[in-house]
Description:
With 167 residues, the chain is α+β, with helices and mostly antiparallel strands. It is built from seven helices and five strands; from the N terminus they run αβαββαααββαα.
Amino acid sequence: MKVSDILRVKGNTLYTITPEDSLADAARIMDEKDIGSLVVLSNGRVVGMLTFREVIRATLGNGGSLGTTSVYRAMDPGPLICTLATEMDDVRRMMLDTHARYMPVIESNALVGVVSFYDVAKAVVDAQNFENRMLKAYIRDWPENKDTEAAAAAPGSRENPSGNAAA
Length: 167
């Protein structure tokens, strides 16, 4: 599964901010939109990532106040990025290795989406559920051997220990 598959299901709604904006404005947007991150863009290019983690650090570093801190001073200036063709397993590994919760998706130097750790986990669970359903359907439709069916129907057989004739 690739990042493009995740974005196809999730959609590619983007929330961005500029480095010059205030951290208070960023926190307000994150609260209003109920999101955990904003991609920081300057002249159409990704220059950073701002997550609730950076907002909390900046707030604590400023004595518990957002003050007049700019997004630039709080953002992660070197976020991990991926492309639409990046394999989901690679994204998961990168996120786990660096404790990243959000990753911008770039294609032809343009921002096309953001994948979150939640998106990746949901894709894994959905894929596993699909595989489980397919395996269960396959097992249920497993072709029986005529000798096995006859043995199961025979009274007193191991397959029919009750000794009653099988229906």
